Each structure stands twice: as C-alpha cells, then as structure tokens.
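Researcher: Quick one. two chains, 425 residues in total.
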Amino acid sequence: MLDIKMLRDDVETIITALNRRGDDFGYLRDVVKWDDERRVLVQKVEEFKKERNDKSKLIGEMKRKGEDTTAIMNEVADFGDKIKTEDDKIAELEKKIFDALAMTPNVPRETLAEGDEDHNVCLKMWGEPRKFTFKPKPHYEIAEDLDIVDFERASKISGSRFATYKGLGAKLERALIAYMLDMHTEEQGYLEFIPPFMVNSKTMFGTGQLPKFSEDMYHVDGTDNWLIPTAEVPLTNYNQDEIIQNAQFPIKMTAYTPCFRQEAGSAGRDTRGLIRQHQFNKVELVMYAHPEHSYEALDMLTDEAEEVLRRLNLPYRVMQLATGDLGFCSANTNDLEVWMPGFDTYREISSCSNCLDFQARRANIRFRDENGKVEFIHTLNGSGVAVGRCFSAILENYQNEDGSVTIPEILVPYMGGVTKIEKRK
RNA sequence: GGAGUAGUACUCAAGUUGGCCGAAGAGGUGCCCCUGCUAAGGGUAUAGGGCGGGAAACUGUCGCGAGGGUUCGAAUCCCUCCUACUCCGCCA
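Model:
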C-alpha cells in the first residue's frame, strides 16, 4: 500500500515512477482529490463532535445538580444525525481511497531497466554448464524412467498439474528440504517456522495477494481461509498489527511449506514436468529489515538463496527484473535462474524481492526506532529455493548416459548414503 | 458442533442501577530522595497509537476484543462477529 501522505506531497512524481511498470496510474490524481475533500469534512465533523461532547458533559453536571436540562438537550438533539451524515461521507471517501490504493502496486526502484521481461538485466553468471557427451533429457523423462515421479497416477487422483514423488524421488525431495533448512538455520541465522498452510483474507491482503489476485489462489469453501501460494504469506504476516520492540534487524525467518496455486493465467505453459504445478514444495526466506538498510538485506537474501545452488554446484544466473516484470508488492526483484540442460535454458528457481514498506503498511507491521519513533519496517522475501524446480535441475544436470542420476555430494548424507539413483530392478 | 464464562493500558486488575471514568488499585519501568554497598524504604511520572489542525509549542477527534445500534451522552444497555478458557460430543 502506498502512503497517502506521500501521494499528497508529490503525486506527479509517483505517477511517473509507477507508469514505468507499463500501465497508466493517472487515476491517483483523483485519489489525492478525494483525500483533500476528506480532510475538509474531517475538520468540520470534529467541530461538531467537540461541541456535542462539551454540551453532553454540561448536561451531566447540570443533572447532578438537579437543574433543568430540556433547553440544552433540545439544542443538541439533532447533532447525532448531523455527525452521522458527515461521518458517512467521510467513510465513503475513505473507501474509495482505500480501494484505489489497495489495487495500486509498489513503486519500482529508479535504477531498474524499463520494459517487459526481455529487458531484465543479468547481474551475474555462476558456474559452467556441463558439456554432455550425449543428448541430455528433460527431467520428466528421467524421473519417469527411474519411476521416482508419477505424473499419470497423480492426474488420476487429483487432476492435471499434480505429481506424486515415489521412493528415492520422495527421499530426494525431502533431502533437499532438509539440506536447505539446515543451511539457512544453522549457518545463515534464520529462525525456522512451520506456519499454517491456510490463512485468512486479512493475511492475504497483508502480502498483496488480495484483493487483486484471488483467482490465482485456492479458497476453502465455507470459510474465510485460503491455501497459501507461498510461505511468504504466513511468515511476513507473522507480526501483523504489531509494534516490534527492541528489533534486531534483520529479522530472518524461514519455512518449508507446500504452495498451492491455480495457475489460471498459464494454461498450456509448462504442461509437462515439475516446473508448474498446482501444489509444490518451497523453502522460503523472509526478512524484516530496517528501512535504511533494506537493500543491503536484499543483497544478503539473494546471496543466501544463491548459496543453495552453489553448494549443489548448479550453474545459475541472477536477473534483475525490469519494471514491467516486477511483482505487485516488489520495488526490486532479483530472480535466480538455474541452468536446465534438458531444456537448454535457464529457468527461474527463486525470486528475491524488496517490498520496502509496501507490505508492512498493509499488514501494519511497525517498530520503534532509535529515537523512539514508530515506523513501518521493510519486508523482503525470497525462495530458498523452490524445491521441485531444484529437484528437476538436479536430475537434468546430474543425469548419466545410462539414465541414472548422481546425487550431489552435499545431499548424500541427507540421502542416507545413497550416491546414485538407478532404475529399480 | 453444543453449552457456559471471559476479553479494560507493558502486565495483573477495579469498574455493568449509562454522565464526577480515557479509566481506581497493584506490579513493572523511568526520574528524584534516603540509608556506607546490597536488601528494604519514600516521592514522582508513566496510554500507546490512528486520523486531522499547526512552522512549532500545542491542540481537536477516535480508541475499554472487532463492527454496528440505542442515547444529548456508552467500558457500562442492545445486536452481529472474533478469540481464549471450562464442560460435553467427535477425532489424529
């Protein structure tokens, strides 16, 4: 949520900056106009209220003394209605302002390239894609040949875009989760959570999924609950409506959760394999940062997600998203893209964003700063990393000509000593 | 899911015949004093926050779980909802 006071001060600058996303945000001029009207009404109604409060107090005193109060009571008789009329007008304006701001995305960082995803900037390349002596297969063929992921039966029991992991496939997925969580918690200082996988609408609003993106998520019929599309939602909202005392920034949280997404807008895309599922596993990293240091926190967060890939020795690149590719809440996003030999391309495996105070304002998360002043925190989130996509990248990068897959060294302890996945006899 | 009880400031807690309650008291915390240190004692201060006005000092308004309503006036009366606890039912 953008700050209405900031809009008031300089709406044109903000509109110009927002328009770099590729939409027209000229309607914000109306929002400022509504806010002006609102403030005039507030002053008017508060005068009424003061008069009513003063007179009511007087009535109380007079009654105690046994004086006659009919005259003064007649005087204030219609104040209630007058106040209500004005309050209703104010509420109407506030709703219009709120609704408009609730649908307005965050302002992109000035330094970002303008344009769609073709304008994303590569910040970094890491690792050397392996030279294959045979034609590398896509992960879904490897997985099906090894019988470690079953797509067909998953669609029988659930529908399209579901998968069932089996045997060493299930174990590899679990090993990845444990490996990531151990590194984030034991070495990088994250506190591990197992949050609810269902959250209410207010929480979904806090991280920006609602009101605009309800069709991307699963709603639980007959309740106010939604299945989380990412652990960012329960983690970022953890301190919702709080003023954090003695905050030691950055506050780092991590969680493994399944994620549920309708993928409504991506019919026909990535239909084969594990890349785009309605349910997938993810280890998420969330940070609360001091407003003055959130971009340092973003660098830290991105690097800590990258470390997952480096230790697995998976080649990747870091892409800074252009303004048009940016998510709703984000001011600046670094995507990690892992090399997928089976697709002969890099695919997104993590997305690390600085949302500044945009989510904190929505979720009302504040802290008391050095001077005792209450301020909104900055929130960041990133995948550390998407487990299914990481699983796929391992199959593709570590495949052997005979169809087996070598287990990356760092995962062997988590695999109970298994060094290679081979076809079961 | 049923029945009952409760939700007041950092914490505990008084306040329900509506007005002297934006809220007693205690603890905690800050500052001051006292006794050589400590323990103990005395005094004093302690809604925070949202939304407005103001250059500022300061000031208005809203805040007693949330939202509505009754009234000149609501912590107090009425309605709806949420949460916690206890009992019952069901259950990993």
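The longest strand of chain A covers residues 279-289.
Researcher: Thanks, that's what I needed.
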